[in-house]
Amino acid sequence: MLPSDHPTIATGGVGVLLVNLGTPDAPTPDAVRRYLAEFLSDRRVVEIPPIAWKPILHGIILRTRPAKSAHAYAQVWTDKGSPLAAITAGQAEALQARLGDGVKVDWAMRYGNPSIPSKLQAMKDGGCERILVAPLYPQYSGATTASVMDSLSAALGEMRWQPAVRTLPPYYDDAAYIDALEEDLVAQVAALDFVPEVLLLSYHGMPERTLHLGDPYHCHCRKTSRLLLERLQHRLPGVRVETSFQSRFGRAKWLEPATETVLAAEAASGTRRLAIAAPGFSADCVETLEELAIRGREVFAEAGGERYAVLACLNDREPGMVMLETLVRRELGGW
Ligand SMILES: C=CC1=C(C)c2cc3[nH]c(cc4nc(cc5[nH]c(cc1n2)c(C)c5CCC(=O)O)C(CCC(=O)O)=C4C)c(C)c3C=C
Ligand SMILES: [Fe+2]
Ligand SMILES: [Fe+2]
């Protein structure tokens, strides 16, 4: 017999937790400082021994960067908050509608709020005994995918009664992803009021050293570009497709070519009409809406470019949601 004060326990449910990088709670220097302090203290992100990195982080970076970054965030902030959080929430809502009531869909951020541990516990408390954790990074990197796994393991380490967990593998070469990008990019290019000479595929950068240490990120990005190129050369004949890496951080050498170098070089060598897309980002964020759409535009124009368009990420629109539903249903198989 159960004691009469035994709590009611919800059981038997299946959950899907979408995870993205994280974003500040507000576009202010204080909120950005809190976010960057957590993000840039992750040894998966900055692989410099803490004894050398901490004085630089706390003595220089967290004193100077928050004001600059807050200005960038302020330019893209929406009435629903940070674009990255608002769009990720939209993806979770749209996926919930597609999967129906048999599965509980929620979302979390690796840094900032809502956190992975808080959402994992809430899903477990809500009866999810099986949870698929889906990092929304098509290309694997230690700084992103592995860091989500670290946070997940640490959260599980604090739980007495753990759910069973599965994780979504990187999907950089998955037909569902390439199909979605092909359909979406072709439609967005067709809707422009100019025909681009170049479509630049810009991925978030990483220190070049990570490639030599065995991180597959660079190879994953290159393979996504190659597979997309195979499709786009038929769908967008005459448009030259190039690849670059954006958002350099710090003094070390990063993956090349750098997006802003390519933008300037293209304009300088005569390209007048250019469209840019960021296939490695599942959702538009400060890196696409500010770095590419505002600063990238200036770089291209200053070097002589005339027409410039930033294509939207897959976000929570139809092609991206078809892809997410396909990937998630596959991973939920047997549950
Ligand atoms: C898509 C994959 C990403 C990789 C790989 C990545 C690596 C990486 N990033 C930094 C430093 C910063 N990134 C910042 C923002 C940011 N990064 C990603 C994704 C990847 N980062 C996203 C989706 C975002 C946007 C977040 C948002 O709130 O909109 C920032 C903050 C912004 C700024 O101050 O410039 C920093 C800093 C490093 C060092 C790194 C690899 C080692
Ligand atoms: Fe980043
Ligand atoms: Fe950036």
UniProtKB/TrEMBL annotation:
Pathway annotation from the record: Porphyrin-containing compound metabolism; protoheme biosynthesis; protoheme from protoporphyrin-IX: step 1/1
UniProt subcellular location: Cytoplasm
Reaction equation(s) it catalyzes: heme b + 2 H(+) = protoporphyrin IX + Fe(2+); Fe-coproporphyrin III + 2 H(+) = coproporphyrin III + Fe(2+)
Main location: cytoplasm
UniProt cross-references to Gene3D superfamilies, sorted A to Z: 3.40.50.1400
Binding site for Fe(2+): H204, E287
Cell inner membrane in keyword set: no
Pfam families: Ferrochelatase
SUPFAM superfamilies: Chelatase (SSF53800)
Enzyme class: lyase
Keywords: Cytoplasm, Heme biosynthesis, Iron, Lyase, Metal-binding, Porphyrin biosynthesis
Family: Belongs to the ferrochelatase family.
Function field: Catalyzes the ferrous insertion into protoporphyrin IX.
Protein name (database record): Ferrochelatase
Source organism (scientific name): Novosphingobium indicum
